[in-house]
UniProtKB/TrEMBL annotation:
PANTHER family: ATP-DEPENDENT RNA HELICASE, ATP-DEPENDENT RNA HELICASE DHX15 HOMOLOG
Entry EC no(s): 3.6.4.13
Classification via InterPro entries: DEAD-box_helicase_OB_fold, DEAD/DEAH_box_helicase_dom, DHX15_DEXHc, DNA/RNA_helicase_DEAH_CS, HA2_WH, Helicase-assoc_dom, Helicase_ATP-bd, Helicase_C-like
Entries under SUPFAM superfamilies matching the protein: P-loop containing nucleoside triphosphate hydrolases (SSF52540)
Segments forming domain Helicase C-terminal: 285-467
Protein name: RNA helicase
Domain Helicase ATP-binding: 95-260
Length: 752
């Protein structure tokens, strides 16, 4: 039996244990008050006719013009530093251009004040109490949306979540008072599905447009149309690179405002030979800087959470030794990546530590970050940048139908942005861990827009829901390859989200309500038919957060032993479900879940966030009238039902066994794949479905569950239509045998 003992105790409490998200949900931020606090200087402002001088005076006042509360001392301190930012000098120029144009392109170096200041300039001119509409500012990254919203709430001297809020997938921190909303580009896109004109907003600011994320590209195309329908809507496209003509041209030759950069020279160093191990090289370089270079903080770019945490640990250990043995100053090391909890993110803005003793060598901080620190977040005080030249990038292969995150070389443009981070406050140095020749000859100029590197199934579904009828003529800045588009349409058709004419089906419409990939959404929607929607909610939530199992390099064996406690022989999905049930048991008994997770090598953070995600998905299920049901736990079909429900979403991600732990995917340029080492699957299954195809030097499938081929024929007959099968011959024969067996069985049943 694969169920942990805690499970049964937990079962009784099943529906009571949701995270607190529902109770915290505070509506969507429209309908704020049209009344200003008494004596507010804004009362004399005329919408879209204000001046910078008027705004300065209002900002200088004793009381907050939006809330009427007295301004704090912190407010005035920050105000002083805000007025040193490069954009400040151009506030009037900005307003002039803003007031006379509907669309505006705004470029400026990272750190010039675009993200924090421009939305505030807009609020002071849009006057939400008059327009009764919000100002939105999109960010490609969740972390940036959250941390910038916090910063701007401080700058405006208001509580985060009230006048200034943020909205990211699975978390809405806004209220009826919200007038300025930072949000991920993906969230604005989701909102647009129900509000095709984005009518809640008077101005939309697309920030970090140069990043060219999938959602930003789609938003640009939508807004290009919406601005024609809604002359009152303003659009600002902000970008960190000076390559802005492309945006101008795309947006009907919109005017451009450029803030001159304020950067110091950065000296660039290359390695004479290529690095064998870039992480090792990076650690060595950081230590050399700390031991030998003058005062100033260090920023090291790496690729992902695990690598970053690992490296932070190693650097800290080495620094401790250095401090013991030499006269080096102290150094604090901070990680920075997308899923870092907010209170830890905020720490990167802490000051460097003071010298160990009076007159000793100064301390410094070292931030080890993903691409987030490239343009999204500005950290003052960075003087040294260490750039190994890699980042994790999404790659899509439409032939294999595989989308994966791969550690890949960055572009020249990225390398330049990274180096620029060193010259913010004084002249800096950038250490590139690659040769100058490699930089010149091997790096591509620009990173390709995400839309050219993605599976578009989700996007196509969203566009259909957004009412875009003619996908071919939808005016994208860089249209994707027709093959990728075809693949997406085909996939959605197999999932029954689009009919044979390419029209949105009822199922497709329902699926688009979930902030999930279509396959996950379809699986969730089908799950009541399999009497396991409660369980599928949990599994879907677990698949939507980062890996819940922790496996530290030095403690692999211990971690694996702990994982074995939760192991389900039929595969990883059910193992994860066991973990979640046990986790909920711990929570419901009021035990210390953090300690419990630590002891069992589980991520408390990711499990808690799965719990939140689950609560939200549950809300959507309820709103959409989908039943929440479970099979009786003692019923022999309890796990079978779950595995069958998995097939309804993942029938296109199935592999058939060739030999021990070696499988072969079925259609679409069938590939040989290995079970990922993390896979617990123990029972011998000839057919498995997988959540993820991992491309490294070998191909792996990860998060795998055993299934029966009968289920494929029964639950996905169109995809597994034997007569039109164009995949492997032996698979066709195997499927045919299964079909014959099913027919014989049915006949026997019918005959008696
Ligand atoms: O968007 P852009 O890169 O042009 O600049 P920004 O994000 O508006 O940052 C302007 C300045 O605000 C930075 O140089 C920081 O000094 C400050 N800032 C901060 O102190 N804390 C934050 N969370 C964000 C910005
Ligand atoms: Mg910015």
């Amino acid at each position: 039996d694969s169920k942990p003992a805690e499970y049964n105790k937990y079962l009784a409490h099943w529906e009571t244990g949701d995270g607190g998200w529902d109770s915290k949900y505070k509506g969507n931020g429209s309908g704020f008050s049209d009344r200003l606090p008494k004596g507010s200087p804004l009362a004399h402002f005329e919408r879209r006719k204000t001046t910078a001088k008027q705004a300065f005076e209002a900002e200088n006042g004793d009381n907050n013009p939006f809330t009427g509360e007295p301004h704090s001392q912190q407010y005035f301190n920050i105000l002083k530093s805000r007025r040193n930012l490069p954009v400040h000098k151009q506030r009037q120029e900005f307003l002039d251009l803003y007031q006379k144009s509907q669309i505006l392109v705004f470029v400026g170096e990272t750190g010039s004040g675009k993200t924090t200041q421009i939305p505030q300039y807009v609020v002071y001119d849009e006057l939400p109490h008059l327009s009764r509409k919000l100002v939105a500012c999109t960010q490609p990254r969740r972390v940036a949306a959250m941390s910038v919203a916090q910063r701007v709430a401080d700058e405006l001297d208001v509580t985060l979540g009230e006048e200034v809020g943020y909205s990211i997938r699975f978390e809405d921190k806004t209220s009826s008072k919200t007038m300025l909303k930072y949000m991920t580009d993906g969230m604005l896109l989701r909102e647009a599905m129900h509000d095709h004109d984005m009518s809640r907003y008077s101005c939309i600011i697309l920030d970090e447009a140069h990043e060219r994320t999938l959602a930003t590209d789609i938003l640009m195309a939508l807004l290009k149309q919406i601005t024609r329908r809604r002359p009152d809507l303003k659009l600002i496209v902000m970008s960190a690179t000076l390559d802005a003509q492309k945006f101008q041209r795309y947006f009907y030759d919109a005017p451009l405002l450029a803030v001159p950069g304020r950067t110091f020279p950065v000296e660039i160093f290359y390695t004479p030979e290529p690095e064998k191990d870039y992480v090792e090289g990076a650690i060595r370089t950081v230590l050399q800087i700390h031991a030998g270079e003058d005062e100033g903080d260090i920023l090291l770019f790496l690729t992902g959470e695990e690598e970053i945490e690992d490296t932070c640990r190693k650097i800290s250990l080495e620094v401790d030794e250095l401090v013991r043995e030499t006269d080096c100053g102290p150094m604090t090391v901070y990680p920075l990546y997308g899923t870092l909890p907010p209170h830890q993110q905020q720490k990167i803005f802490d000051l460097a530590p003071p010298p160990l003793k009076k007159g000793g060598r100064p301390g410094r901080k070292c931030i080890v970050s993903t691409n987030i620190a490239e343009t999204s977040l500005t950290i003052d005080g960075i003087v040294y940048v260490v750039d190994p030249g890699f980042s994790k990038q999404k790659i899509y292969n439409p032939r294999l139908r595989v989308e994966s995150l791969l550690v890949s070389p960055i572009s020249k443009a990225s390398a330049q942005q990274r180096a620029g981070r060193a010259g913010r406050t004084k002249p800096g140095k950038c250490f590139r861990l690659y040769t100058e020749k490699a930089f010149k000859e091997e790096l591509i100029e620009q990173t390709y827009p995400e839309i050219l590197r993605s599976n578009l199934a989700n996007t196509v579904l969203e566009l259909k829901k957004l009412g875009v009828v003619d996908l071919v003529h939808f005016d994208l800045m860089d249209p994707p390859a027709p093959e990728t588009m075809m693949r997406a349409l085909e996939e959605l058709n197999y999932l029954r989200c689009l009919d044979d004419e390419g029209e949105l089906t009822a199922l497709g419409g329902l699926a688009s309500e979930f902030p999930l990939d279509p396959s996950l959404a379809v699986m969730l929607i089908s799950s009541p038919e399999f009497y396991c929607s409660n369980e599928m909610l949990s599994i879907t939530a677990l698949l939507s957060v980062p890996q819940i199992f922790v496996r530290p390099a030095q403690k692999r064996r211990e971690a694996d032993e702990m994982k074995n406690l939760f192991k389900h022989n039929d595969g990883d999905h059910l193992t994860m479900l066991n973990v979640y049930h046990a986790f909920k048991g711990v929570l419901n008994r009021g035990e210390d879940a953090r300690t419990w997770c630590h002891k069992h090598y589980l991520s408390f953070r990711h499990l808690s966030s799965a719990d939140n995600v689950r609560a939200q998905l549950k809300r959507i299920m309820e709103t959409q009238g989908l039943r929440l049901v479970s099979t009786d736990f003692n019923d022999k079909n309890y796990y079978i039902n779950i595995r069958r429900a998995l097939v309804t979403g993942f029938f296109m991600q199935v592999a058939k066994k060739e030999k021990d732990r070696v499988y072969r995917t079925l259609k679409d340029n069938s590939q040989q794949v290995m079970l990922h080492p993390s896979t617990v699957l123990q029972t011998e299954y000839d057919w498995v479905l997988y959540n993820e195809f991992v491309m490294t030097s070998k191909h792996y499938i990860r998060t795998v569950t055993g299934i029966k081929p009968e289920w494929l024929l029964e639950l996905a007959p169109a995809y597994y239509d034997i007569d039109s099968w164009d995949g492997q011959k032996d698979v066709k024969l195997a499927l045919k045998a299964v079909a014959d067996k099913m027919r014989r069985r049915a006949a026997m049943k019918g005959g008696h």
